[in-house]
Amino acid sequence: MTTQSERAILAKALTIIGLVLGALFAGLPVLWMFASSFKSNTAIFAYPPRLIDETFSLAAYTAVLTNPEQLRFFFNSYLISGLVTVFTVIVGILAGYSFSRYNFRFKKVLNLIIIGVQSVPPITLMIPYFGLIVAFRLYNTYWALILTYMVFTLPYAIIMMTGYFNTLPRELDEAVMIDGGSSFTILWRVLVPISLPGIISVGIYTFMLAWNEFLFALTLTRTNDMRTVPIGIQLLMGQHSFEWNQMMAMSVLGSLPVLLLFLLFQRYFIAGMAAGSIKG
Question: Distance between CA 72 and CA 171 in Å, rounded?
Answer without folding.
Answer: 49
